[in-house]
## 1
Amino acid sequence: MPKLAYLGPEGTFTEEALRVLAPDAERLPSSNVTAALEAVRRGDADGAVVPLENSLEGAITTTLDELAWGEPLIVTAELLLPVDFSLLARPGTEVGHIKRVFTHPAAITQCRNFIARELPDAVVVAAPSTAAAAQEVSLPGSPYDAAIAARIAGEHYGLVELATGIGDRADTVTRFVRVSPPGPLPAPTGADRTSLVVFLTDDHPGALLEMLTEFSVRGVNLTRIESRPTGDGIGRYFFHFDLEGHVADARVGEAISGLHRICADVRFLGSYPRADGLAPQAKRGTTDVDFAEAAGWLTRIRTGRV
Amino acid sequence: MPKLAYLGPEGTFTEEALRVLAPDAERLPSSNVTAALEAVRRGDADGAVVPLENSLEGAITTTLDELAWGEPLIVTAELLLPVDFSLLARPGTEVGHIKRVFTHPAAITQCRNFIARELPDAVVVAAPSTAAAAQEVSLPGSPYDAAIAARIAGEHYGLVELATGIGDRADTVTRFVRVSPPGPLPAPTGADRTSLVVFLTDDHPGALLEMLTEFSVRGVNLTRIESRPTGDGIGRYFFHFDLEGHVADARVGEAISGLHRICADVRFLGSYPRADGLAPQAKRGTTDVDFAEAAGWLTRIRTGRV
Amino acid sequence: MPKLAYLGPEGTFTEEALRVLAPDAERLPSSNVTAALEAVRRGDADGAVVPLENSLEGAITTTLDELAWGEPLIVTAELLLPVDFSLLARPGTEVGHIKRVFTHPAAITQCRNFIARELPDAVVVAAPSTAAAAQEVSLPGSPYDAAIAARIAGEHYGLVELATGIGDRADTVTRFVRVSPPGPLPAPTGADRTSLVVFLTDDHPGALLEMLTEFSVRGVNLTRIESRPTGDGIGRYFFHFDLEGHVADARVGEAISGLHRICADVRFLGSYPRADGLAPQAKRGTTDVDFAEAAGWLTRIRTGRV
Amino acid sequence: MPKLAYLGPEGTFTEEALRVLAPDAERLPSSNVTAALEAVRRGDADGAVVPLENSLEGAITTTLDELAWGEPLIVTAELLLPVDFSLLARPGTEVGHIKRVFTHPAAITQCRNFIARELPDAVVVAAPSTAAAAQEVSLPGSPYDAAIAARIAGEHYGLVELATGIGDRADTVTRFVRVSPPGPLPAPTGADRTSLVVFLTDDHPGALLEMLTEFSVRGVNLTRIESRPTGDGIGRYFFHFDLEGHVADARVGEAISGLHRICADVRFLGSYPRADGLAPQAKRGTTDVDFAEAAGWLTRIRTGRV
């Protein structure tokens, strides 16, 4: 039974994701993404489940940065989880009496309309996670009257649900990934995704265009690009890429080898089945069969058998 | 005397930025970026100063999203401000007794080493801003023992500085922008920056490459690219671009007209002097003189004077 | 009644083309392409009809070079003319007795199979034009027994047709152009072609890619590209381009202005209706309406009306 | 002693080239380029020397087409030969009495100024080669009074040199290639050239740009591009490319494999030392060492050793 660290405490959306990705795993709640990934790096956990991006909030930058720096880890699975928020309070609390609300900043943004309409006078304070907010609210003497969090968090911490489905959009989704120590990759399924971190050799104009051309010329489609600061001053960035296909695919392998050649550093973050199961349309001449045929042809012409 | 909203309360780095950008302005502290920009949109303020990105933390996504949606506003100035953090507490507090620290999540990340070394057992709680953390700590009965914030915040709220320069990196910089209602742009200086928000027509593979080509073919260099979710599901993004030059420059005008033609929407966020004063190297054939000469030539050949 | 020079003598395919392009014109036969175009430059003719390329033989390089150098001229019309060859001889000649055949080298190539099959032992000598060959054969005492030329040439010079349709391919076509002195261009028809000559600034790697990108980024399709030596040594070339659209089209105008800016020289050779009447499919965002809309948008944002 | 066919008869510039390229070879004059290459294909010769392009006249299209169609052959060497023309006649002829001149059309073009100045009234007739012209003039009863050809041709055929160095440009150069049956390639020298013929899958707009991108993305520079008609109608072309480097170079191999994948057909015409000895500047990340390192990296990451 694998032991998986996750962004805790119990009751987070991440715990929900973990239960779907690895129902039988032992769960090791961590206080933040950094701690969850460090547990894997130290060998205290066999893997971790962490959020990577949210359809409303965007990238979870802590996850991006933790994967880019420090000891390498690889992504071995992903999950798209609809997220919805509930207003949770200690039993006996009435909505009209709520003065202070505790929740994660992402939830503040995503429940903006509900808060403006139902809690116009409440002070809303930022918490490190929605589950931590629920936990804090559950404590006797908490300065907060209510938390905005997943329903599961209310169940964990004995809170009652005063309102449910309070997010501004009903279709908000968070993408979670399972992160593992380096080791054998999930086998290609025909509908895979590959994640990379890329550091430029120098910030010359056109470097990004060059990188994208390495992909496009081999018919590899990007599904996500994020820039992150290197820490070396405004204007210095590195990039996270998600792309269609598996590193075992010839076109993906050649494309990221090309990146590796022209960039200061490329960190491979894994190839894994896409949660949405979408198989890419291979552009003409970019299937594994095409690459194998071309390799055979090249071998022949190099020996003058034209 | 213009009235400028800013990310308050008093004592934030943003206030510091505002004092540099507009020393004589009346200052209107707002509880968050959204509120500051809404004050401009409603006409309650003549402008606002908000953070846009940090060399360690990356983009301030709230600012990016606020500028992308809602009534249009334009950026009219930028400032790069070194940011440094101090550990602030009520008079009489000793470092050894600090159990609960309140600060903005960005500060938690940026002071990670100091916290691990000097406050290994303290609980660190996320605050909406560093100045809000200082304000909270200054209140009698606050559950927090210390705040991590700008020194200026300590002065505002009567806290003492227990440690200074506690950021992991001494060279951290935040980029602030002055935002104004639509209106005349700052005149070109020869060292300008232009900001844009771009929404794709559809997420076809290669759309990003096409956008970058619109810039590169006219010799316009990008200095920043950020992707943000449109809110319509994982895998749907829009883009923030910063580029070298002023929209009054011929090459910039033609490039962003090109973007406008091929994209679903391009929101112009302003052209303004670069804080670093760096003038771009115009690629061969891309100066205003080159464009004017080519326009004259085109007029001639269209009438058969070859 | 305009006077048009053409590649003579009477009986050439070019004369045939001229009769189609300008049935009422006075015809001025010239001994070669150079002479025909010089007649226009000197004002001895109002225009000229010359061959530009053949579907089997390729470019008529003399025409390409004559249009690239010297006083500028413009193309004002084009014609695609099926070409077919006949074996022509003086009355009384029998095929079996033909020992020496005179014709243009292009005809030698295009009738290769017929010659090998029917005239295996004949010596085939290169003539300056097919019609000149017919003329020579018609002279008493000519060393040649037969000519390969257009049927019309046989009629002109009193030769009989010993065989007809002797080209290897039945579908061979020659493209002829009408060349005029600089002056008003033919109006856009929606199915036009534009011809250019482009000289690179320097032969840096990637210069050709840069040129093609100027076209592709504005959605302008090339229909022909020819490289020609500049005369300054092996490895130094200039280019002939044919492209879809009229210089009056916004996308074409911007594309060739872009070329003009980055190249040492661009010579405009005219915009004229396509002989095949094919209208281009405008790529998204590249119609005149799109350009006009973008220009209006640019004007607005430049004055801060966003 | 190898037997090499060449564009004869004796006295052509091609013979001169052959003598430089293979001083000890047995020489087999052929009546034209086609015949010379057919001799190799049939095994009647061990190779052939033919002209490929001239710095003034451009491509020798017969050579291009012969190499593109029929049984494959490969180029194994190249030579740049300065070409100069002489006016040759039977002993006793005076310049003032020359009425009919016989020479190859390329020579007519290249000696245009001399002809206009010194032989303004002469009729100039096209010959299949300059040497054939000299041979014809040497025959008793020839209708021609003089030939324009290489001095060597005059020596062969007993003509006297009435004028020498009569080309308009003193620096005209012809590039000749040695063509061999398929077999082992010349070893890489560090300053090599590779020649290709490329047929597009279809004539979609942007196909040429795609091809050039396959080269540029691997840092492979083109030194020549020629379009030739496929014979299937105006507007249908295939391409000849010369590029820097040897097919044994990793970047060249990957680039032309890429072409092979996306094109209908790529015919490899050989890799051979450049006559000018120029070694290419490898772009960052494109040396064989870079490719080998990247291949090792790819192998590692594919097995999860990141």
## 2
Amino acid sequence: MVELSDAARSAIEDGHPASLTTLNPDGSPQTTVVWVGMDGDQLVVASLDDRSKMRNVRRDSRVSLSMLTGGTTHGLDNYLVVEGTAEVIEGGADIWLQHLAHHYLGPDAVFPPPDQRRPGYRMVITPTKVRGNGPW
Amino acid sequence: MVELSDAARSAIEDGHPASLTTLNPDGSPQTTVVWVGMDGDQLVVASLDDRSKMRNVRRDSRVSLSMLTGGTTHGLDNYLVVEGTAEVIEGGADIWLQHLAHHYLGPDAVFPPPDQRRPGYRMVITPTKVRGNGPW
């Protein structure tokens, strides 16, 4: 595990959509765009359903996550990459998605819609490496 | 190979920074943010130096690329994911980076700086699958 800098932590909590890559059964990369937040020193991604990314992580825990964070360094877009190992935990997805919706959709956002709330799955990512263009 | 829709092709040529994931020697995902364009039915990424992403692709050609494309569908950010197989070709990077700089930095951009121009490497990606949130 590596500890994230304050700048990296702040970027992750600032509502930037993130590209998350997991590994398919054949080892090929599977990428999707997700909301992400911090829980202590770990990153959290949530899903109401048992999607490919969750199934992939149960088989191979290695993931990478990247996001554009706004602004530029040396004239090029700032971005953050976090590599890590992930674990899937049942439950809490609806609570996390509502928490993240405040960052991603706005302070008054209600998400998921009340009739779609269910425990779902959380992916908890322990960072092993941080890279990118910016003050990380 | 799959043929890209006009909407996907247009998004790729619209100057959105892309997350590109290749596979490290140990099979873990390696993600970086790149400029990308279209050359016929293939995607092109260029680098002046022989970076990890280029070395990775020579060993394992499987890649995924994703980008936020602006706007929303069903209230969530539009994004495009292209999975494919990639090949590294020597030369032409400086010409491609200058071409892409017009899309990513502006019509008058000069990039790479004249004193840093060298042939470098192009990664040419043949799409095998297109996914995402949006009109793809």
## 3
Amino acid sequence: MVSATSMGYDDDRASINLPDDKDMLSKVKQVMKEKSQLEPEYLVVVGIGGSNLGTLAVQEAVLGKFYNQLDPTTKVLYADTVDSDLINVIVKMVETTLERDGNIILNVVSKLGTTTETVANFEVIIDSLRRCKKEYGKYVVVTADEDSKLWNLALKEGFSVLEIPKKVGGRYSVFSPAGLFPLGLLGINIEHLLDGARSIRDTCIDVDIEKNPAAIGAAIRYQHYKSGKNIADLFLFSNDLESVGKWYRQLMAESLGKEFNKKGKKVNIGITPTVSIGSTDLHSMAQLYLGGPHDKFTTFVRVENSTSHIYVPRLGGYSELVSGIQGKSLKDIMDAILEGTKSAFGKDGRPFVEITLPDRSENSIGQFLQFKIIETIYLAYLLDVNPFDQPNVESYKRETRKILARKKKY
Amino acid sequence: MVSATSMGYDDDRASINLPDDKDMLSKVKQVMKEKSQLEPEYLVVVGIGGSNLGTLAVQEAVLGKFYNQLDPTTKVLYADTVDSDLINVIVKMVETTLERDGNIILNVVSKLGTTTETVANFEVIIDSLRRCKKEYGKYVVVTADEDSKLWNLALKEGFSVLEIPKKVGGRYSVFSPAGLFPLGLLGINIEHLLDGARSIRDTCIDVDIEKNPAAIGAAIRYQHYKSGKNIADLFLFSNDLESVGKWYRQLMAESLGKEFNKKGKKVNIGITPTVSIGSTDLHSMAQLYLGGPHDKFTTFVRVENSTSHIYVPRLGGYSELVSGIQGKSLKDIMDAILEGTKSAFGKDGRPFVEITLPDRSENSIGQFLQFKIIETIYLAYLLDVNPFDQPNVESYKRETRKILARKKKY
């Protein structure tokens, strides 16, 4: 592992040094400060895959899935894919705001600026912005690799720019400006996020493997993969962690799903990540998980402290429907369901581990994401694959370019 | 297959007769009319698994994921699991509305009324309603099996009641009042939904298998399962169809994931359903799908006509970022990405089928859901398992009850 204090970005494993980078943090905070002063009603994040999944994961985990519906100072919209109906809604919200002289911030995130969906959506949304605001440049922040085409266009247009270090790939970029700027603008404490990442990183690079949770996690997963578990379910007992699941899904799928191993041998290896939400998905997936094939390894995640405390009231006449819940907290009921599920898994020989997060704070979420990043890198080493490349995505992109070239323009 | 004209509900396959039931429809419309007159600002659906996934699927498919943020007459909230933070947000929205004399409708959906999460959330929310409204009964609609404890409580409390036929299980209940009432109250055309279901059902029970798309679909899936594909990915190229994916996930997981076959032999059989969204998940999962193990069968779903038409503008200086997209519609770009993906899958020997929906109308969505229901029933027959039971979910519920009995009350 790269020394945590070397502060370098010239190695593929560079991302683990992000939490130490004070220059990066101060640049992000400077742009955050400038853009906050515009009092934006919306932050529109244009980016897809590694360019927005970390932001979405942390935003929903810390601020909740209902964030936009709770009338925050700055709402957030994610323009990821080129779905006309999605982009239409976003453009309408943006234009309505601009037309009554409100402000938005447009944050375009793309390492090379050559992602089809991101560029298409960027052009659509900046077109609205240019029509409504004379000095449109000050509302745009571009997060990209230095000297990429997108970076150079941003400089020419007078947009703010934030750099993603070249060796930090999309799925490892949540602690770079790709995640930090939009999260900070929404009021998330990015120092605490980085503190959490830094503290668990130091534990996860311990050479004493017995004291290293990431090494232990990777070893357990590797053993179960070898014994035929080709599916890894991340079973999150918290509604607001669903997008953390989606972030992890990319991390595992892209880092471990490989046609060739590091020796160049064709192996078609990989573990398929799935995401379940407790207790919701017990009511849709438990029959398969407890009755179906023994092809899964499960990681249960529970959150020790919820921010809200709600109790089932003692209503006369209602107690006969389900006994034993009146007077109990929803939290206790949820915990009992998770305990019951673990017990049923155990009795049926279904393997699992459990991770308890103290809460959904920035620090805890930072720890969890950084832990999963390092665990995944270790698992790739055990599987003898390169966790930092994604060569097979080129095949569909090549086919898409050919087809796009034949489509007519309007 | 049950005759489509027999109109009976005394067979496990009863759900396919729901689209013909005029009495059910007229009862639902009568309650819809009564409750619409209260001009509710929120519809709160309390239910989990089969009791809300169909409603969520159709609502988001037809009205969009951004529905609540577009200021509709009646917003919708889903209280499914006992997540304190989720229920806290819902209770606050409900109480704020009631305190300024606005109205809500509370729709509790549970076949037997013995689901822990549903009863806990019902008690929490009705407690707010009782404190704010003297005649609270008129704001509550209970959808349940006739003569269940919940049904009888509803009659005693003066709530409206709607019946789920006893033989219609949760995952098959979207075309029963479980789905129809909340969807209708939100302005969805439930006649068109049922028309779609009815028309495809008549095709899908054709004894000429070559003309029967559900039989063909089941046979293809069965062959691929037999040849080692233990994962079925539903890859939906439309952002608003994600919850249709979640509905299907339950249908497949619970109907096919079985410990025992119909002869009582222990088989631990099942196919693990996964849901991907195009093009978003190409940027997180494509590396695994195209480089990883050959353990998946994919169903691509595309929507022929989007409601919105957006074109990439011809902005000077931006055309160099990605060539060939300016002047094209987002729809054309999305179609090209799907074509490119299919081409890459084909070249690498990754099996798939494609389903094209004409649009996201009620009729088209009704067709798709009904098609998947019948296909799944056929597939269960091929796998020699019972698609209508879910015996293994009892194991975690039993464990949960034991643990709950030990927890202290407050």
## 4
Amino acid sequence: MNFIEGGVCAAKGFKASGIHVGVKTHADWKKDVALIVSETPCAAAGVFTRNVVKAAPIHIDLAHLKNGVARAIIANSGNANACAPHGEEYAERMCAAAAKVIGCAADDVLVSSTGVIGQTINIDAIEGGVQNLYDALASTVEASDAAAHAIMTTDTVKKEAAVGTIIDGKAVHVGGIAKGSGMIHPNMGTMLCFITTDCAISSDMIRAALLETAEISFNRISVDGDTSTNDSCMVLANGLAGNAEITERGPAYAAFLEALQALCVKLARDMASDGEGAKHLITCTVRGAKSVKSAETISKSVISSTLMKAAIFGADANWGRALCAMGYSGETFNPEKVNVAFASAAGEIDVCANGRGLNFDEDKAKTILTEHDIEIRIAMGEGDASCTCWGCDITYDYIKINGDYRT
Amino acid sequence: MNFIEGGVCAAKGFKASGIHVGVKTHADWKKDVALIVSETPCAAAGVFTRNVVKAAPIHIDLAHLKNGVARAIIANSGNANACAPHGEEYAERMCAAAAKVIGCAADDVLVSSTGVIGQTINIDAIEGGVQNLYDALASTVEASDAAAHAIMTTDTVKKEAAVGTIIDGKAVHVGGIAKGSGMIHPNMGTMLCFITTDCAISSDMIRAALLETAEISFNRISVDGDTSTNDSCMVLANGLAGNAEITERGPAYAAFLEALQALCVKLARDMASDGEGAKHLITCTVRGAKSVKSAETISKSVISSTLMKAAIFGADANWGRALCAMGYSGETFNPEKVNVAFASAAGEIDVCANGRGLNFDEDKAKTILTEHDIEIRIAMGEGDASCTCWGCDITYDYIKINGDYRT
């Protein structure tokens, strides 16, 4: 298994495009609609936000995914189509418009939106631009890049990756694009992510693989503790790799899962690293926990702590905030067994042993915490389970971006 | 019942003081130790953080409160005495030092600390200064003021209040000082608060009243979602008002509870309003909910949302973030019945009806949201229960304060 080029166009039989049609009204005319199409029908699955308030496209997708088959995904940025007038009607019209130019049924198209909540989406701009969107489709590195850019909101870099592996003697590819940045907290997808693969796999098994993957990737990141109304992760598998269709767990499923998980962990980390205003990627690894679930809860609590995030922003080795966040995570443990260290490319430093502060070299700690990628290493002394979660620091820019997002 | 002057010295038979002894080493020599003493033994109770990681003084207080009797509280700012070497030993020594100058048993003294986690507290400075602290005791407005200042960390204003009421024909006084600012989230006390009263009330009933009060005051505020290791709220009742001792629920208990709750709601609001770096007090009132618990959960989720807080900082009427936070609160409800309005001294504006955005006057909304005290009014359409919680916005200053707190 290895990382390759091509994003959502890495897998055979997929085309993508991304253009500006007018949903975003900023003067800089950024791309605002993306289209991903498979030559042939795909086994399809999705996981969506657990927020009680769900954006309109999610209701449409849940209906369109009932038969486990789809061929295309249309997605816009600039408007979330959540809590907005005509929400479901316009989400359906996005699917219908795409279906018409592709030449497929409307319920074989999935739809996603991201952007501001509560405003009517400019459906005329999307319907008016869909032919141009279709005409721009290509199965190239550039086409995936365009689609990745078209779903960005406050993201500063595109999120795109692809993985190649061998299953059943055949070359299988899995690729994805994603957007993240704000309103991100582990509770399902926590963002938009669209994945394509040429692996032959049944609807049931692609769904199982997606659920298993979301749990250990997107559900282990947090930017700001806010679970969005629009979080969606969808996968299309068209089977063109020619492997024997995966219909049950076994070595082939395991190989596919490994590729899918590698892809999604990379995209999830990239999302955390590019959290709104972030200057640091924070990785929190909890070892020696009594269970993976316990390690995950504790690690998530640490990366979600506003105070911990502010300390990392300030390159301040304030490990007490990590211990505090562990303590209110809901997990029980003995604080007097906890060790904490900070690490980065600049080295590692122990700051807490058996729940008590160590006299450590503050200058060395500062040097370590000045790096972009910071790791908080926690040893619980309770068992042998471990888990890693990812977050980012909170900065002046986060406040600036979110203090006046709508205007 | 009415608000009066005097803070913790408003009740008969209480003296207080606050001085600098050297726990804080900043150049500005702020006060760092407070003492509150009753002439006579008191019925006493406390509620403490639910964080698994508890500061050393809390373990000592739990032991000293077992018999429901106490006479004094000694508290320092500048060091949390949490996860620090010799924690419990030094907390005991603080009690013993105070007991020696007062002339009471060490287990009749309660102790609190607030400040940085994980560093050894300067016990020598406290022991060396305790005679001066005792000599400064007085039952004056100025003495309570000094104690209120001595427990401040990043607070910008002192928190102090007192209430007078009539119980059993006698004038009864309840007063308190508190500190808040950071690491504040509803899960018990969420701060330090010391309350004195001359009401005659049994240990059991003062404890019941404190629990009932914490639930609807301190547990309904949030500054940053971080539940501290040190949260403590303690009350001393010396009975010098001369009312018949309250030993059960009834009109006298109800009158005392009313006074205690009025005091604590005021102190809680003051804490939210003075949250670290805050420019706005945010009050979120949820009406028409199916239960008070449901209204409380939803209201807390809204005031705790980092994105909602950033929007208020930017005076941006981004009500979608309120709906989003309601949706991930864990409560179930029908989003299509939800109405949202923003209000302040400058007026009120409806922004969402039946879960959909309204076309509202953005200029008017901006004017309303520019005031210091902002209210988010939510109508659920599910029942007739309501609840109000308090929070604050998140600002550049919050990041600045917490990016480099230790140095």
